[in-house]
Protein 1
Amino acid sequence: YPTSIEVRVNYAMSLLGQKKYDDGLNVLNQGIKMNPSAGRLYLGRAAYYKLMGNAAAAQADEIKAAQLGN
């Protein structure tokens, strides 16, 4: 898995486009564990949650990203 935040987000978004939801969420979740202050990762995960129909989780991640300045 990539280590840079932007590379990780881009990789996860490419997996999203391939409908590899579990793999993409894993990439983002690992990134959040490694760098919990990276709002961009939360925004990426929110996109996944929206497409998966989990509006509450998407909103929580969007709020967290906003709190982090994204």
Protein 2
Amino acid sequence: AREDGWSDLGVTGTLLNRIQPKFDVRSYGCKTLGALLQAHPVHFEIKKRGRKDKNVYVRCVKLSVKYPMPR
């Protein structure tokens, strides 16, 4: 993650898989990691950038108090 707490969703998924290889989002009723994180807006923020919103970033909500999301 960058200093402001935002991390590329793909990188986040790769690191999560390295840390916990048995983790499967389908166990939580979701098809993708992005869908799982979006289902928990109290804990995670999602932002989409770039052409057709193809670049997806995620961060923990508690970090957003210190670093508000840019508009």
Protein 3
Amino acid sequence: HRVDRRQRQMCKETATISQHLRELKNAGLIKGTIDGTSVCYCINTHNWNNSKDLLLAFLNQNETLNTLCC
């Protein structure tokens, strides 16, 4: 029972990781190369830095947001 339960959990974890990697790749934040049955992922540095800059600009808006709050 314990092994079956752990195997099911590992399959769910693998599926979740695959979904997250697929979404990161679709967003252009990572790149992947296929080698047989394996996929090697790395950060797409250009897109990662652009996304980081956008997020930081958004997060640094708190002074403006504080003045808009009731």
Protein 4
Amino acid sequence: VRTLRAAGFGGVFSDVVAYRMDLAVGRHVLDRVELVATKRPYALIGRNVLRHFVLRLDGPKAQLELRWPR
């Protein structure tokens, strides 16, 4: 657990608490991923998590695919 300064969508910085936890995506587990607690009912996935996956966004079909690399 640590405190850091982070900017929100509006660019305003505030102090937030960062935690480490194991994150399961499908049958894959990422150990000790750092995350930031928010007051929102959802989470934002950062590059520290996305770098482990292959991400495909098809705008015209409104599809998002997130998969583990082969």
